[in-house]
Design goal:
Layout lengths: L2 H5 L3 E2 L2 E10 L2 E8 L4 E7 L2 H4 L2 H15 L5
Antiparallel strand pairs: 1-2, 2-3, 3-4
């Protein structure tokens, strides 16, 4: 079993990984469930190689901050 398949059903903090939604240049996106706020969320996880690259981590952080500013129902 590869790492991505192993993510399904695991818990990261308060988030439970439900299923993989897609793959992009910055990592994989999963459907997650926030067990505290009782809602579904999108969770993006960097590949291990990218997580060791300071520039990639900085880009990932900028992208996350931009996504957090979105206001949607």
């Amino acid at each position: 079993m590869d790492m991505e398949a192993g993510m399904i059903g695991t818990t990261l903090g308060k988030y439970r990984i439900e299923k993989k939604l897609g793959q992009g240049g910055m990592g994989a996106v999963y459907l997650g469930y926030d067990t505290v706020l009782d809602r579904y969320v999108a969770i993006k996880i960097l590949p291990e190689m990218a997580a060791q690259n300071k520039e990639m981590v900085q880009r990932f952080s900028i992208e996350a901050k931009a996504a957090a500013k979105l206001d949607h129902p």
